[in-house]
Amino acid sequence: MPDQPVVLAFSGGLDTSYCLVSLRERSRRVVTVTVNTGGMLEAEMGEIEARALALGAESHVTIDARDRLYDEFVSHLLKANYLRNGVYPSCVGVERMVQAEEVTKEALRLEAAAIAHGSTGAGNDHVRFDVVIRATAPEMPIVALVRDESHTREAETEYLRARGVDVPEKTSSYSFNHGMLGTTIGGKETYGSTEYLPEEAWPLTRSIDAAPDAPQELTVRYERGLPVGCVFPGELPDGWEGGTGGGHRLLTELNKLGAVHGVGRGVHTGQTIMGIMGRLGFEAPGYFILLAGHRELERLVLSNRQQSLKAYLGGIYGDQLHEGVYYDPVMRDIEAFLDATQERVDGEVRLKLHKGNVVALGCSSVFSLLEATRELGSTYGHGSSLWSGDEARAFARLYSTSAIVVNAAGDAGRRAREAGDR
Fold first, then answer.
1. Strands across the sheet with 357-364, in order?
2. Calpha distance 234→252 (Å, rounded)
3. pLDDT digits (tens, 9 = 90+) for 278-334
4. Under a CB-based contact definition with an 8 Å cutoff, are residues 124 and 315 in contact?
5. Is 77 within a domain?
6. What is the pLDDT of residues 338-357, one digit of tens each?
7. Does residue 99 sit within a domain?
8. Most buried residue among 170, 290, 348, 380 by CB atoms closer than 10 A?
9. pLDDT at 422 over 70
10. Nearest to 366 by CA among 346, 349, 341
11. What is the pTM of this model?
12. Which of 172, 207, 225 corresponds to the end of one domain?
């Protein structure tokens, strides 16, 4: 349907601005779609729409997908305690799945001729977009000019400026992706492995030096593994609008609070979906605050075996989601497991934010294994009424059996080997 529009996933950044102008010069009708998955103010959404129309879009659609992103994706990452390679919370990576699906729904509604996105061929996003589009609209053509024509950011900047399009200097030097979980940052320092991003490259968090000397304490309340609100021991922090609720609104408020105290800043180096190595900066203050509290509460209410298996499956779940695997049924299986593990993860955790750190001060829960231990008459390091001294001695003796057997086998083997050598 060549007379039908191309639906472009539009962020207003350099790559998607280039795609819009280039498609219009190729005489294509373009409808731009921005999916709000957090990280931007309402005024910024209006600016994105105005930019799209100014650059030639036929019309613009804004879709609010914050609730869905949090309920279906972020909630399970938090339950999984997921960090990519133990460092990176995937930030905007998981948001691409929701964005791509919502853009595809709009394209199908409009009976579009194609779906376009501005992802490069060197990162992960182009795979995520393509996988979602092909899974939900297999016959829909995909237009990815930056990837397919191998454009550089410098060439795109020159192309747009030659046509009178304003490209801020900072935009051409650094690439920013803002989302509910946080922000990712790419620039010349991240192309190699030795340089750290300069202070001006961090859009949200303060440096440790610039963070307040006075710490901020707060208590986060969790129900079935998810944060449902937080309270402060004194006055509310300046600018706090989080109220007592949970969901993405609490995460957004904690992003702002944590940023003031330098929480959640880092650089991640790891292998991409395409198999090459990549490096990026990230800021995710709110997620790191909630993660610290969630982990501390789980230590109090879950058994060692639960925590061990959950860490394994949670890592698999987060990695698969980060790499664009969402539609495989195994993901629903792991989600069901993660949900089941959170039945007892109810309680409150006291946290302290200070100079880039999140310190768990203590927590309480009606499902506390520590309280159950005390009520049964046992205190670690002091004694227990659950067994006698003779029973403890017998247990320790039996527990050493495995070590005795292994050492005996090793001694026998060495003697046999020495005899054979002679």
1. 226-231, 216-223, 347-354, 357-364
2. 21
3. 999 999 999 999 999 999 999 999 999 999 999 999 999 999 999 999 999 999 999
4. no
5. yes
6. 999 999 999 999 999 999 99
7. yes
8. 290
9. no
10. 346
11. 0.92
12. 172
> Do 363 and 393 belong together in one domain?
no
Helices (H) and strands (E) in the chain, counts: 16, 15
**Residues with Cβ within 8 Å of residue 46, at least 6 apart in sequence:** none
Q: Is the pLDDT of residue 360 over 80?
A: yes
- Residue 171's pLDDT is 59
Q: What is the tens place of the pLDDT at every residue in 77-131?
A: 999 999 999 999 998 889 999 999 999 999 999 999 999 999 999 889 999 999 9
Residue range(s) defining the domain that contains residue 403: 387-421
Q: Is residue 213 part of a domain?
A: yes
Cα–Cα distance, 402 to 408 (Å, whole number) = 10
- Our measurement of the distance from residue 199's CA atom to the centroid of its chain's CA atoms, rounded to an integer in Å, reads 22
Burial 155-183 (b: 16+ CB within 10 A, else e): ebbebbeeeebebeeebbebbbbbbbbbb
Q: Residues 188-239: pLDDT tens digits? A: 999 999 999 999 999 999 999 999 999 999 999 999 999 999 999 999 999 8
Angle at 73 between CA 47 and CA 132, to 5 degrees: 75
How would DSSP label each residue in 275-317? SSEEEEEEE-HHHHHHHHHHHHHHHHHS-HHHHHHHHHHHHHH
Q: What is the CATH number of the domain that holds 276?
A: 3.90.1260.10
Confirm if 89 and 288 have CB atoms less than 8 A apart: yes
DSSP string, 207-275: PTTTS-SS-EEEEEEEETTEEEEEE-SSSPPTT---TT--HHHHHHHHHHHHHHTTTTEEEEEEE-TTS
Exposed/middle/buried for residue 363 (C-beta within 10 Å: 0-12, 13-18, 19+): buried
CB 264 within 8 A of CB 182: yes
Q: What does the alpha-carbon distance between residue 246 and residue 252 come to, in Å, rounded to a whole number?
A: 10
Count structural domains, the chain.
Answer: 3
Check whether residue 332 and residue 413 sit in a common domain. Answer: no
- Note whether residue 382 is domain-resident: no
Task: State phi, psi for 350 to the nearest 5 degrees.
Answer: -90, 130
Question: d(Cα 114, Cα 104) in Å, to the nearest integer?
Answer: 10
Note the Cα 96 to chain centre separation in Å: 11
